[in-house]
Amino acid sequence: MTVFDYHRPESLAQASELLAHERAVALAGGTDLIVAIRHRKVQPAMVVDLKSVSEIGDDIAQEGDTLVIGARAVMRQLIDDMTVNRRFPALAKAASVVGSVQIRNRATLAGNLCNASPAADTAPALIAYAATVGITGPDGSRVLPVEDFFTGPGETVLDRDEVVTSVRLPIPISPMGSAFARVTRRRGVDLASVNLACVIDPSGRVRFGFGAVGPTPLLAEATLDDLGDEDGWSRLLAITSPISDVRAGADYRMAMLRVHSGRALQAASKELQAS
Hints:
Blueprint: E1 5-7, H1 12-19, E2 24-27, H2 33-38, E3 46-49, E4 60-63, E5 66-70, H3 75-80, H4 82-87, H5 89-95, H6 101-104, H7 109-114, H8 122-128, E6 132-137, E7 140-145, E8 150-152, E9 155-156, E10 163-170, E11 177-183, E12 194-200, E13 205-211, E14 218-223, H9 230-237, H10 250-274
Parallel strand pairs: 1-3, 2-3
Antiparallel strand pairs: 4-5, 5-10, 6-7, 6-10, 8-9, 11-12, 12-13, 13-14
């Protein structure tokens, strides 16, 4: 049995002070943390519950030309939100396959990022949509592109006493097409062997977010002209470094990445044409 102190601060300042302690961990939805504690992958001395921190919202709201998702917003809110579905459908689709119904009612988008799994389902969509992460700590606030947030499996740029407060998506001023794709061993609750999102704009600029094919979720950019032949696709996918593990072999991952990237681009292009 793991014994730890439990704190529920009401301000970011209090949360940061507590998180500065050695072996302190933050709790949001808890769907990853509780499992890690149960399996002794994490043995905290202190759990800091962020659900009462006044500066961390749980809403999804438009601020100017940006959609701001509070760090306490859960996957179910993304799935149900009209603006997310209309403007960022690949993100809504990604959120809809995270865990089970029960998990989606508890798991937060920010927590999915902070867990920093290379196979996190929402990360490719956020990367493809050029989302950023709002971070606050004792030294102030900063904003980073999602693709720069991860440093390795289970690791992020967060300092010990920093907290993610929001995820921000720029609202496109022109129509865009997007698609999300995922390969798993079985239907239902399972980590992805490969996941990805594709976004294309009217100029033919394409952004891909790739998951489970490198130590972190990855950004790849190209144009439609670049992807007119296999050499172009090879250059695009050269940033990936899939491994073999219990979920899939490296060769299988690479083959599925190529197939589903092509299908996602076709689907995103079709959506753009229909907009």
